[in-house]
Every structure is written in C-alpha cells, then in structure tokens.
Design a protein that fits this description.
The protein is of the alpha+beta class. The chain is about 15% helix and about 35% strand. The strands form 6 sheets. Strands 26, 27, 28, 29, 30, 31 and 32 form a 7-stranded antiparallel sheet that branches. It has a 6-stranded antiparallel β-barrel with strand order 12-13-14-17-16-15. A 6-stranded antiparallel β-barrel has the order 4-7-8-11-10-9. The two termini are about 55 Å apart.
Length: about 500
Amino acid sequence: MTGARPALSRRLRLMGAAIAIGAAGMLASVPAAFARGPDGIADVAEKVIDAVVNISTSQTVEAKGGGAMPQLPPGSPFEEFFDDFFKNRRGPGGGKGGEKNGEFQPRKTNSLGSGFIVDTAGIVVTNNHVIADADEINIIMNDGTKVKAELVGVDKKTDLAVLKFKPPKPLTAVKFGDSDKLRLGEWVIAIGNPFSLGGSVTAGIVSARNRDISQGPYDSYIQTDAAINRGNSGGPLFNLEGEVVGVNTLIISPTGGSIGLGFAVPSKTVAAVVDQLQKFGELRRGWLGVRIQQVTDEIADSLNIKPARGALVAGVDDKGPAKPAGIEPGDVVVKFDGKDVKDPKDLSRVVADTAVGKEVDVVVIRKGNEETKRVTLGRLEDTDKVQQANAKTKDEPAEKPVTQKALGLDLAALNKDLRTKYKIKDSVKGVIITGVDGSSDAAEKRLSAGDVIVEVAQEAVANAADIKKRVDQLKKDGKKSVLLLVSNGDGELRFVALSVQ
C-alpha cells in the first residue's frame, strides 16, 4: 500500500505505513525541530484532535515468500505492530509463510494512514496512496471507534481521496484555511498516525511554499520541518487558527524517518479537489489543448523575449480549444485569465484550476509582440485519446538523399526510404537529421538522427538549403542563436535553440 519514489537524487517516500515495511526504516527517525514553539499549540491540538482519524485498509495480495520476524527489544512499541503481520503467516496447509504444496498462497496485508473529517455527515479527506487498491477501508476515530468507510472518489494527479462513513455519534469537523496566506517561518501543526501511533501531534514551521519536487503535473507543495513520518500520510497540517492549510503527503529521507523535509498539498488545491469529488466523484479540469515547454535563456533570446518567462507552445491539439482561438506553435503564453505565467508549471496549474467552459483571455508573445486570444476551455481527459490519421500518401520514388551540413548536423530532404528507415509518419514534414557532430551544440541539446526540423526561426523549411540560408541570414543579423521547431517520428514537437556562432 505504500512505497518510495526517487526524487532530487534522494529517496522521496510516501508516508502511509504498511505493515510489511522493514524494521530498519521504521526505527530510524531524526527530530525535525527542537524549538518549544508558541503556547497556542496545545489549544489548537485540543480543539481539532477529534476530527483527525486513522485509516486502516486491507488488501489481498499474492505471497512472495517468507521472512524472519525482526529482532526488537522486549516491550518495544513496534513489537505488537510486527507481531500482527508475522505470527499468522502460516497458510491453511501449514506451510511457512502461507506455503501449501510448495506454493505460496494469497494473503491479506494491512496498511495504516491518516485522514481528517471535513463534514459532520461523515466526509473524510486522505491521500490516494493510503487507500489505493484496498479491498476494505475502515475509519478509526480518536476514541477508538472503528467504522467501515466507502470511497467517494480519488484524484491521482494530486494524490487525494475522499471517503464517507455513517457517523455512529456526533462528529467534530475541521475547516480549510487559506494556504496562499501562509508565510515562511509561520508555525504549523501536523496531527496523524505515524508508525500506527495514532493521535500524534508535532509542530514546526513553513520552510517553503510552491515547492516543485517533480512528482506530478500540478506540484505546488508546502514544505515543513514539522516531524511527519510513515503513517502521517493523509493527515492534516494546521495553522494556529485550527484551520487545515495542507494534507501531509511526502517526505524526503534516506532512512524512512523524518529529517525535517516534509511536504503537504496546499489547502487551496485540496478544497477544490474535494468539492469536485463530492459533486461528481471525479475531477473535471480545464483543458487548453497545447503542449508546452520551458522558455530557456537561449529560446528567449531567439524570440526577443526579455526576461525569459512564460510557457512556450510546442504543439497545438487539432481538436483542442486553443486552435480555433488562434494560438500557434511558437507562441509564448505569459498571462492566463489575468494571472501571470512565469513557467510551464504555472500554466498547467492555472488551466487545470479553471472551470470547464469558461471563456478566458490568454496573452501570448508572437514574434516579439503581445497578442490576446479569447479561449473557451475544454475538459481535460484522464487518458490521451489522440486520433492518428490513417490516410496513406502516394509512394515516393526511391532516391539517394542529398546531404548538406549546417549547425553541426547532416541534413537531407525527407523521402520514402528515409521515412521507412527512421519510422517517420507521413504527416511529418520538414528536413531530416541523418547525423550529428558529437562535439556540436546540437549534440549537447540531444538532437539525433531521425529528428525532423520543421521550422527555422519560425519559418517552415522543406530542404537543407532552406536551413542553411536561414542560418546564414541570422549570422549576418548578429543573432547568437537560432530557434528550431523539431519533430520526432510520431509528430511530437519541441523547440530547440542552437548557437550559430
């Protein structure tokens, strides 16, 4: 039910505490902070503790083999935790580890995480990875009451889930605060179920905001040094007003324990996701219908954009909202619906958070000039449904390609033989790269044989002579770099800036 994912060359861990995890990772923990903190922490904890719940799940999995019970000190708080897993590993046939007639039998595993009540009708928020693939989900309240829960909906992109259960008694619920108002150094409180030790309260500060740790398309985490560990996943991060400002989701740790690098999904994102999951049971995100990439300093120089900013449109979906609005490859989006776009992540987040069907103004820079496009947003589908054209063009006669050199590249006009050799779709037009000088800027930018140059300096090219002519002109004009629009064999586009000096 839990696992670890690599990030930033370190181990980035999901914190839902699975029973089957190793003892070494559980026993190692480093305090995140030693400061006493503000006096109000106790008052906040007392006010909200009953709204924080433990989440227990079970899942039937295929047995992979036996394992020895970790050697733990007598009376260790983890002794019972591991005993529940190891003592019943003998299967119905009496074999060790569930083995029967030489084969391992399916077994049930349990997992523990955290969550919090946002509605006294029995609505609970947690992480998707806490309940993913579970056969059964139970809510354990602060007083020990255990109630079976049902899944309302999940959003894998933000790792959030909403559950519901029938309240056996009046409940305490908490409200969302405004995560946008958090300041660096502000005190926050984490409450959850670390290592199955339910109702644990820790405190720390906001270490950073809008943190992108490359875990999803909408990364904008709150970073905190409040001690959070395995089992805290899905638990709330409170401000000193007792409002939920985040959902504790990830830690970076070489040991599995807290080293003061914890990450929470901000409440602004959580509240919107929870609202949609309750209404629709799914997420309905806005969709612009473009593929975007970073505006590097070289690309910005080629496009006369100072300073480098925005999201460069590398491709436009033929059936997307951007195409009829007049947005084209090579445009740089610098503002969306009145919000500044600093980089591609900004655009992805703001588009996803915008209501489907809303008309918005999109400001783009095209050939050095700002233009405003009016776009009616579509709905982002969870799976790509790109339709590939099946039409076949008339066979071209076989011919020996005429190769020219420019920018450290061997270039040739596309023909049937080259399309077959490099598996280039008929819909891709331009000049094919047949070789790359290993010491050139092109090699450093990862251009390779089989890539197709579609445009040079935002003008279409049909042969190698076109490219050489454009490059020579740019040199005369004193340009330091040239912007290429490059396609792979499947027609996926990207922009690459190469030095012309």
